[in-house]
Design goal:
Layout: E1 12-15, H1 19-29, E2 32-40, H2 42-48, E3 54-61, E4 68-76, E5 96-100, H3 103-112, E6 116-117, E7 122-124, E8 128-134, E9 140-146
Parallel strand pairs: 1-4, 5-9
Antiparallel strand pairs: 2-3, 3-4, 6-8, 7-8, 8-9
Protein name: VOC family protein
Domain VOC: 8-146
Pfam family, one: Glyoxalase_4
Length: 150
Amino acid sequence: MAKNKLLRMDNVSIVVESLDDIISFFEEIGLKLEGRAVIEGEWAGRVTGVQSQRVEIAMMVTPDGHSKIELSKFLNPPVLGDHRTAPVNSLGYLRVMFTVEDIDELVSRLLTRGAKLVGEIVQYEDMYRLCYIRGTEELLIGLAEELGNQ
């Protein structure tokens, strides 16, 4: 029997309260809105296990076209839990990390839009400068600037 071969990772999904606010936040980071749609119907509930769901989604894509984030706003049923303010040592999915060109400039811009620096911008050896921020809706976002590759 042939072994299945992984082809790619398509996207990461994040459930949000306001698609417009989150789209604007990710556009500020540099992602582009690829499309928006309402997903519903019996088939969708069979995939997710959430029957009678009605979800508005927005697909954001990185400038290189290789990575996507699916933003989901549940219209029905209501959201059951909220993990956005969990500390970084919590179990489960936690954050998305982006490599950026100028971490100081981007963090400064995001702070003026209400983001909060979680710790501080630190340098890891001679390879990266890194930080975590809490963005719109308290989403935890990692930012990394590669050093010596510019």
